[in-house]
Amino acid sequence: MILSVDRLNLSFEDKSGRRKILDDVSFSIEEGEIVGIVGLSGAGKTSLLRTLNLLQPVDSGSIMFDGQNIVGLNESKVRSIRKKIGVVFQSYNLFRYRTVYQNIAFPLKIQGIGKGKIRERVMSIVSELGLDHRLSAYPSQLSGGEQQRAAIARALVMDPKLILLDEPTSALDPRTTGRLLDLVVNLNERRSVTFAVVTHDMDVIKRTCDRVAYLQNGKLHFFGPTHEFFVKIENNEVSDFGSPLELETSVLSGQKRLLRVLFWGERTHEPVLWEIAREYDIMINILYGKIEELKNGPFGTMIIAIDGQRQDLFIEKLRDSVFFLEEVG
Amino acid sequence: MFSQIFNATLETLYMLLLSGFLATLFGIPLGVGLYLCSRSRRLKTLYALLDLLVNIFRSIPFIILVLLLIPVTKNVMGTIIGPNAAIFNLTIAAIPFMARLAENSFNAVPSGIIDSSNSMGLNKWQMVTKVLIPETLPDQIGNITVLLINLVTYTAIAGAVGAGGLGQLAINYGYYRFQWDVVLYAVIVLVAISQLLQFTGGKLAKGLRK
């Protein structure tokens, strides 16, 4: 475990009194995984990110990082912890009057590392991130995507144990978003960089996250594997991210029974439904279906109408073979 | 007459550049101090005190400040007339001005840049020398330009109380002896100096801005 947050509380004082920003939040990040911190604006995502990096002191709770509680450390200890956590801010925050190279080299330079060694490290990272040709450009001359990659490079150069990404896709067009997500997954797989990603972008969650911490009004409403988060969405337990399809079930079904089936992992691509339907001689009418490619496997949702003699047996058998099944309508 | 104007110009430039240099040398660190104190919970009271002092010194009209400083000037410089005494007065007046300009520029650094510097584990000294100063360099050049142009006016005022330079020339020859052409030439030179400063400062700042 690289980071574990236990019963974190944070509140701000404002005109209307004390406002709770984080309410007893607990979760953890394992080495080598990507955890999504998700929720709507104002849910406390960014505050949580700031507390993880000690930019924001908390009211109570503990943050275990690299084997020690980093809440309430003195300033010089805080500084040494921060060097082990890279942050890529939403607004990138590159130094305005330093070139891309100087920006990326900066964290090493302030540690007094030799010029040759800095050069070696910077060059190995920029070639991986496709920034080689922009080294002498200033941030204002870069595109949004390039600025972000420079910021990621600046975070990577320290070889941090954990990188925090704050809303990484909020300012990117769809194509750049795609490239970024590939990059994150790539860095995660090849360099085994651990990431915590603050986001409300479903694409980010689908394509990068191993686990999801879902915040609502400062409370952690869900923490678990990404596919289980999607089950929550499909079951309408998480409404912030678009509700599942509302079918006019009464019209569609007539007297037939409707089933909602969720698949996950290997079995999604197997003809499970067909095999069992044939076995019990059941007629199936697919009313709705979709498959999402999650990072750790495909996730499918289907709504079917069934007709036949042995419906109960069919449902029982199917329930054992799929991830989730319920009768609707 | 022209040799007089030439000498007076040299005196003015001497006062201007030396007091400008000293005001920058002390004013920017004071600006850093103001900025850091204003952001520290522990040093809130110190900030309030420094802030008040800066405000007081900035609100006293320069000519009055010169009068008030007479005993101090006499003690420190050994005299109260001539360019060197004037440099002392000009510097005292200009330090708080420069400090305030510098502080405002530090405050204008995007908070994200401060956050990301903090997140890299910079200490206070690195924060000042590697982030605050470099990130405000073009603005500080602009500030120094404003300071110097203000000092052009101040040197002329100082001329009225025996500092020498173009101000004194204009008053002694032009005002007291009705040689208005001398006033005119003095003014032309002062305007030219201001223009040159503005032009150079603007070019420098623009070159640094990316």
From TrEMBL, chain B:
It comes from the Bacteria. InterPro entries: AA_ABC_Transporter_Permease, MetI-like, MetI-like_sf. The chain crosses the membrane at residues 12-36, 48-70, 76-97, 147-170, 182-200. Pfam families: BPD_transp_1. It is a multi-pass membrane protein. GO terms for biological process: D-methionine transmembrane transport. It is found in: Cell membrane. The keyword Glycosyltransferase does not apply. Residues 9-201 form the ABC transmembrane type-1 domain. Keywords: Cell membrane, Membrane, Transmembrane, Transmembrane helix, Transport. GO terms for cellular component: plasma membrane. PROSITE patterns: ABC_TM1. Its main location: membrane. Belongs to the binding-protein-dependent transport system permease family. This is ABC transporter permease.
